[in-house]
Design goal:
The structure is a single chain. By secondary structure, the chain is mainly beta. The chain contains no helices and eight strands. The strands form two sheets. Strands 3, 4, 6, 7 and 8 form a five-stranded antiparallel sheet that branches. A hairpin with a 6-residue loop joins strand 1 (10-17) and strand 2. The radius of gyration is 19 Å and the shape is elongated. 24% of the residues are buried.
């Protein structure tokens, strides 16, 4: 007799990419282990998150690892964000590790040319 697990075999939060002042791409990897699995990301300014967005692709049922991502926008500059991947089957929810990224500072420089013009 064999039993099939009802949770993703493997789910991992991967580092964010494309980070700028107000947006970032969240990345992760999931191996659904042959079980239909919905995939989302949780994110926010604390490890309590508060926001959820669908991953792309937003589901998997295969037996090989696939990379997923989600572009998030309308972030605040100069802010640290927490995020993690979330996989949900009909009976179980699994989470990846908490990772962080920083949106950076909003700095402007005014250059004054020798002729007095600003750029």
């Amino acid at each position: 007799m064999s039993f099939k697990a009802s949770y993703p075999t493997s789910i991992s939060t991967l580092p964010a990419s494309g980070i700028d002042l107000t947006s970032a791409t969240l990345n992760g990897s999931v191996n659904a282990g042959g079980i239909p699995t919905a995939v989302k990301f949780e994110y926010g300014t604390t490890a309590s998150y508060g926001n959820v967005t669908d991953a792309i692709p937003d589901s998997s049922s295969g037996t090989a690892s696939i990379n997923v991502n989600a572009l998030i926008t309308s972030l605040s500059p100069n802010t640290t964000y927490h995020f993690r991947i979330k996989g949900m089957t009909a009976t179980t929810t699994s989470y990846g590790n908490d990772l962080i990224f920083y949106t950076g500072n909003c700095e402007f420089q005014i250059l004054i040319l020798s002729n007095g013009h600003h750029i």
